[in-house]
Amino acid sequence: MNLSEILAVSARKFPNKEGFIAGEDRLTYKEVNEYVNRLANALMQRGFEKGIK
């Protein structure tokens, strides 16, 4: 299981639990997962590919 999968599982199991805290900023696991997915999709649209090369 990789970090992306762990985050997705946490977002399903604990969507409203805080998953990211930085100073005053707090995001739920669901919010973090949504941000990460948007970033990954944006990178793939710009030519990045899944996996490690």
Mean pLDDT, nearest integer? Answer: 93
Beta strands, count: 2
- Please give the count of helices: 2
Helix content: 40-55%
Strand order of the largest sheet: 1-2
Topology diagram in text:
Elements: H1 3-13, E1 18-22, E2 25-28, H2 29-45
Task: Outline the structure in words.
Helix content is 53%, strand content 17%. It has one domain (3-45). It contains two helices and two strands; from the N terminus they run H-E-E-H. It has a two-stranded antiparallel ribbon.
Key features?
53 residues; alpha+beta; 2 helices; 17% strand; globular
Task: Sum this structure up briefly.
With 53 residues, this protein is α+β, with helices and mostly antiparallel strands.
